[in-house]
Amino acid sequence: MRRIPIFITLLLVAACSQESERTYTVDELIADEALLSRTFSDCRNNPGELRNTANCRNAEAADGKLRLQNMRKALGG
Asked: What InterPro entries does the database record attribute to this sequence (predicted)?
C-alpha cells in the first residue's frame, strides 16, 4: 500500500479549513442580513477567540453602517 506524504495531507487539510474561514466584506454582510446576524452572533458568543478576526471586524462595521443608514432614513434623510 502506498502512503501519502504528510505534507500533502496537511496541505489538503489546510485547503479545506480555509474554505470555512471565508472572509466576508462589509458590503457582502450588509447585502445579506441573515449572514450579518449569524456572524455578529458568533462573534458575540466567542469574543475571546473571534473578536479580532476579519469577519468580526467587518460585521461590526457593517452593523454600524446599517444603523447609520437606518437613522438617516428615520430622520428623513
From this structure: Eex_IncN-like (IPR047937)
In the chain, where the domains are located: 20-75
What does 20-59 look like in DSSP terms, one character per residue?
HTPPPPHHHHHH-HHHHHHHHHHHHH-HHHHTTSHHHHHH
First-residue to last-residue Cα distance in the chain: 70
Residues 6+ apart with CB under 8 A from 55: 23, 24, 39, 43
Tell me the average confidence (pLDDT) per consecutive run of 10 residues in the chain, 77 residues long: 59 52 95 96 95 96 96 91
What 3-state class would DSSP assign to 75? Answer: coil
pLDDT at 30: 96
Name the strand (E) or helix (H) holding 61: helix 54-74
